[in-house]
Fold this protein.
Amino acid sequence: MTRPTIAYGSHGSFVEEAQSCLGCDVDGDFGSQTETAVRIFQGEQRIDVDGVVGEVTWGRLEHVYALAPYPPPMLPPLDDATVAEIKQIAGQSAIAQYQWEDRGEAPLGYTQGMALAFADMVRRYLASDSTALLCGKANTHRADIDALSWYRDIFDAKDMPNEEEGLDTLRHLFVLMLGLGMRESSGVHCEGRDMSAENVSSMTAEAGLFQMSWNMESASEDMQKLFDEYYECPRDACLIETFSQGVSCGSQGWACYGSGDGYRYQMMAKKCPIFAVHTAAVGLRTRRQHWGPINRMEAEVKTAADEMLAAVQDVVLGPPFDVSEQEETS
C-alpha cells in the first residue's frame, strides 16, 4: 500500500511529510509553493509532471528520503497481565453498571473493549502518532465540525475542559464516544445499517458501533491511514473477542452493501471493532455533523466514564517517577 494521494488543496500530516522532504514551509497546507516543489521533484525524477503526489511520486519520495514504512507498523500488543488489569478496571467500574438512557446497561464487552481501545490510543499519543495527536488536540472552537467544541458547555459543566491539547482532552473524547456507541448501537460491534433508512450504497451504508459510513473518509487523511493499517490486522489485535462478550450477532447485522472500499469498510468496522473506534474518534473531531445523536446532543457524557478511563490511562502511563528513590540508589 502507498500513502494517500495528495494534491493542491489537500491538508494534513501527509502534506507535512511531503513538504518536509521537498524543503517547503511545513504547514500541512498543499498550496502553490508545494505544488511547484512537487513539479520540480517530478521533473528531476523523470516521472509525469502533474503536481500531484500519487503512488509513483510517493514511491520516489520514499526511496530518495528514506521515509518510514507505510502503513506504520502497529504497536506491540499489551502484555496479558496489563490487558487483564484494564478489563478488570472497566468491568468493576461504575460506568459498567450504569443504565444508559433508553439503552440500559452496556454489554460487558463494550465497556472493556472501549477501555482497551482507549489504552491503545494513549500509547499512540505517546508515540506521536498522527491519529492520536489529531484526536487529542485542544478544542478547535469549530462547533460546526468538532464534537468537543459542540459539546463544550456540557464538558465544562462537568469540570472536563478541553482547552489544552493532551491526554485529558483525548480521554474526554472517549467519554463522549462511550455515550455515542450506546446511543447508536447499544454497544453491539456487529450492528448493521439502520434498516428504516435507504443508505444502501457502499459509501453510505452505516456499520458498527458508531454507525459510521465510509463517505467519512474525506474528513481526514487519517481515515485512509487507519483503513490501510487495519486492513490486514490480526484478529487478536482487533479486539473482537472482547467486544463480542454479551453480544449476539445475526445475519442481518453482518450484511454489507455495495463493493470496493466502502464494502470493505463496513466489514472491517464490524469484524475489527478497534478500527471502528479509532475512525469514529477522528470523525468526531473533523465532521461531527455525521451523527444525529451528536447534533441533538443525545450522546451522554458521564463522569463515571471519565473516572474509568482515567484509571486505564494510569495503567498505561505506569507509576510516577520517584526522584527521591532515584537519588537513594545513585
Notes: The beta strands are 99-100, 104-105.
